[in-house]
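Tutorial, part two.
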Amino acid sequence: MVNASQRLPSNGRLSGKIYRLLTVLVNKSRGETKNRLSCPLIHFENVGLRYGMGPEILRDLTFDIPKKSFQFLTGPSGAGKTSLLRLLFMSLQPTRGLIRMFGRDISEIPRPELPLLRRRVGIVFQDFRLLDHLTTYENVALPLRVRGKEESSYKTDVIELLKWVGLGERINVLPPVLSGGEKQRAAIARALMDRPEVLLADEPTGNVDPPMARRLLNLFLELNRLGTAVVIATHDLALMEQVEARRMILSGGHLDIYD
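Running the prediction step on this input gives:
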């Protein structure tokens, strides 16, 4: 087991080019938030969530996601891990309680400003959310393209990152042709291109073999070492045993945290 501040020594080790790429991606967003570094990136206080008139599926959640932290979110199926990730991504509003994102109460943020705030949170969905009419390269580059970036400013970075996650030969392939594991890796690469301050991953290693799972975990650890807070929702005990990291365990609507 290694500490979350260390890199895993695997043959998936970051190349010099990828290391420099990730350093640039992360550091570009760091300069914008130096005045907020003393506060937790995310704060939940007595948060509850229910769908419609049903029972609360999340109850009295109080916790912080500190800057540069690394944590696993786990629990039995149906415990509400995906719902909690949606709250963290601000795509779902709590029924009650307080959520502060980057020092701001989300209940007071005007709706037009939410998309701008979400850019600071990267998310890898369990169902990938790739666009079938775009190639692997185009899907990964999409966050930069919609911001009006010139392709010449990111093309090399996208290709290098795709090579590192093992998709160098699948750059021009459409998602329907990709395997589940390949789609997962493309989704992870896309989330990283958005330079997130917080990265959320919903079962990111669920469709890959153990060597690739270790390689992806190494990437998450490297991003964390460079300053990105990481939350990985997973059932994979073998994955969690590889890293000495904070564990957030959801059960019966309640959250227990083991640092």
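The longest strand covers residues 56-65. In part three we will examine how such features are distributed along the chain.
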